[in-house]
Amino acid sequence: MDNKKQEQLNTFRTDNLGQTLTTNQGLKMAEDEFSLKAGDRGPTLMEDFHFREKITHFDHERIPERVVHARGFGAHGELQLYKSMGEFTKAKFLQDPAVKTPVFVRFSTVVGFRGSSDTVRDVRGFATKFYTEEGVYDLVNNNMGVFFIQDAIKFPDIIHANKPEPHNEIPQATAAHDTFWDFIANNQETAHQVMWIMSDRGIPRSFRMMEGFSINTFRFINEEVKSHFVRFHWKPMLGVHSLVWDEAQKISGKDPDFHRRDLFDAIEQGNFPEWELGVQLIKEEDEFNFSFDILDPTKVWPEEEIPVNIIGKMTLNRNVDNFFAETEQVAFHPGHLVPGIDFSNDPLLQGRLFSYTDTQLIRLGGPNFHEIPINKPIVPVHNNQRDGYHRQMINLGKVSYHKNSLANDTPAPIPAAEGGYEHYHEKVEGQKVRARSESFNDHFSQAVMFWNSMSGPEREHIISAFSFEVGKVKDKNVRQQVVEMFSNVSVELATKIAANLGVNPPQNQTEPNSTKVSPALSQENTIKKLDTLKIAVILADGFQGGIIETLDFLRSKKLNIEIISDQLGMVKGSDNRELEVQHTFLTASSVLFDGVLAVGGSNLNLKFDQDATNFVKEAFMHYKPIGAIYEGEKWLQENNMTSGIGVVVNSNNDQFTDQFINSVSTHRHWDRVIY
């Protein structure tokens, strides 16, 4: 299967190396430096077809960016099942554990323009295109388990409120402004999503370290036409990890492509990112047996009540060859289905089924976006659709309609029993109304559950996030409304943010009486692995040569070791062995690493000491693991950092390396006292 897609894409690849210049029509050109003129100082002639083609193509290089999810990054990979799901769905790609289904995944931020930063506080898109034997299937997820709104008719409203304000186009890629929080305070169905985005999940450490949630409810249909409601999950094999806010802000300045670079480099280095695919299933007859409406996209299905059944693993193992042709032109749509998967009546999902196609039509220039190589299915396409912008298929024959006798009534539909797609026969009855089910009216119980499920540090981060985001709101009345709204989640939360925002404490002083928790919501309970974590090693000339064996040992634990010094080139150790410097203090920062190992050297100066001290102090402030050995100890000793939790110093400690590994394996040391 993967080979089929690879072969198909190969037919569209071209390498200009060593080739003769031609026009887009294949005409070889003798000149590409000068336009055709009437004399060497005369006007350019309109008949210069080469100039017109070249400049016209340049003028049209940029397609309209996505209204949402404009900033994205993608990669190719494959899905392989652990077990067959034939009991629940007849979808072929979910049947055979021996089959590898090729996929393309695009990660994205939601609000910012294409030129915005990777590490803003935002929801992240996690969209997967499966190239299956039955056609393309798109699973269009986010990294948070819920959404702001319940009905798609309000989608333009939440996005308009969240985008830069129209009178001055400020601010970019952030919710920290008046219109967003005014919308939140006046549309209280948003409460649960806001708790997620104010949590650490709003600033993920890496695309490789975030979950994916379908949010919407779908159906699985098996061969016996029995239906189960289903929600999909991607569970990262590296666990779910995040940045701290100060770190995220600094990374935006140091490396706005931080998440893109992280994913690209991991794949190039052979550290292929992996996620397990899981599904939550509810029998059709159990649809109304829960305290929440299972079709409500502002509600999670708590994993403790409805377990996530892990069914397979996705591996991303190949970067794109061309960002525009693949990542920018890829077109996802939750309506791209295969037999065995169908929709529910989730009102957000129902609206998405129109919106995605409509978006692709204007963004990609017409109805033939399916013929772009990255979107093209690996199975043949036969139908009576014709023409339109950018048509590539050359249809033979004169019949382009159904039914017909001139082509023996082909292409012809095929019965569901033979693989044709047929929607689930759901009984629907009722009056035509503009309304929402009363079962959608509970806006706070799961927001309370989310807050109850957070660890102490996570709660502090949420309070800080509210204080920063709402602190940017100029209208004091809006700030007060936000405080009153979130007193329905936690009076403690609302009271603390009120103090930070300079508004009155909430009028409601009664804490919600729900003690329900979902441990799966807290990152405190996530997987913690050493694999691919980046450790900055600060070295100078004259470093103790024995550190080379220590670094080799750290690499054997799958840590990425990168050398920091005052200049690029080679640094020479006390035994004349050399190491190559990857970064200087000017080109790197501790915020780009997961931990620091301070080594030093004999050739130090005041400037080096200052830079190294600042590097280590910043990592200390961000609760990161820190090791210090040889001359590097002094940078910690002089700043009273040696006794900090998660800080490991040598001082003739023969267990130093093992203790440093243990410190790194914790990822963050939230109990560290910051002063």
UniProtKB/TrEMBL annotation:
Gene3D superfamilies referenced in this protein's UniProt entry, alphabetically: 1.20.1370.20, 3.40.50.880, Catalase core domain
Alphabetically ordered keywords of this record: Heme, Hydrogen peroxide, Iron, Metal-binding, Oxidoreductase, Peroxidase
EC number: 1.11.1.6
Acyltransferase recorded as keyword: no
GO MF entries: catalase activity
CDD domains for the chain: GATase1_catalase (cd03132)
Keyword Metal-binding: yes
InterPro entries for the chain: Catalase (IPR018028), Catalase_AS (IPR024708), Catalase_clade2 (IPR024712), Catalase_clade2_helical (IPR043156), Catalase_core (IPR011614), Catalase_haem_BS (IPR002226), Catalase_immune_responsive (IPR010582), Catalase_large_C (IPR041399)
Cofactor(s) this protein requires: heme
Domain Catalase core as annotated: residue spans: 22-410
Reactions performed catalytically: 2 H2O2 = O2 + 2 H2O
PANTHER family per record: CATALASE (PTHR42821), CATALASE-B (PTHR42821:SF1)
Role according to the record: Decomposes hydrogen peroxide into water and oxygen; serves to protect cells from the toxic effects of hydrogen peroxide.
Family: Belongs to the catalase family. HPII subfamily.
Name used for this protein in its record: Catalase
Organism lineage: Bacteria, Bacillati, Bacillota, Clostridia, Eubacteriales
